[in-house]
Design a protein that fits this description.
By secondary structure, the chain is an alpha+beta fold. The protein contains eight helices and six strands; from the N terminus they run ααβββαβαββαααα. The chain has a domain of about 140 residues: 2-Layer Sandwich (Beta-Lactamase), CATH 3.30.450. About 55% of the residues lie in helices and about 15% in strands.
Length: about 280
Amino acid sequence: MTREERLLRAIAARSETARRLEGGGGEAVLRSVVEATVALFEAEAASIALFDAASGRLVFEVAAGEQGHGVIGLSIGPDQGIAGYAFTTGQALALSDVASDPRFGRSVAEKTGYVPRSIVAVPLVDDEGTIGVLQVLDKRDGQAFSLRDVELAGVFARQASVAIRASRVERDTAALLRATLRWLAGAGDITGGAAETELEPEDEAALDALVRRATDDLAQDESDGLWRLADRVARLRDADPASVELLVDLLDVLVRRAEKTSRSRHRGSAATGRGDPDA
């Protein structure tokens, strides 16, 4: 393994550790947002679609309500339907008769098994731009959505945006590595603000191979004690403070022992003249 590959794997390993420690909390928060939205509005359904940079599409990740679950996993173009309009313009809107609005994608709604009468759509926005859309479908009492409803939906959208940004490291590790490598090769803008330059096919294949070697076995490698530790730490979310403090104290002892052992090994290698064969 070359020095560059070791660096990529170290980056990927840190992201995987963060994913495991995060423990799916980001998705749980999003699910709680749509469930609370359904309860507050007494709505038939609520859902959150997130923009997936790899596919260039909006993907419906979570939903709640009696009529909501058929949309999970569905993807649409970022300029498609009411959700696409809210995403591309960054504007929230409320429609009392979606069937009469030319922006409404009826064929997409039919795929979910439920065609709504009315919709509130609010963009999810953070410091870097619009990252998705929160939609609320049909009050069960048949009343139309009001401007006040749009404002309330915006409050939930802001909470969802915070949760999404906090957990995005889980979703973007490979994309981040690939974008960084392209930037280093002079073929892309690491900020995503400029068009990428096409690489030769063999260069693209080599880049993909590097990323794959850095990431392909991390999630499946259960034999590594570090992952077992991260998984168990994630389970301490609901532990009492005294238990957490005890764990911290134990870890301090183990870390000092590990550092002492590492220094001893390093001195032994230096004394015998052995070094890193890849350095």
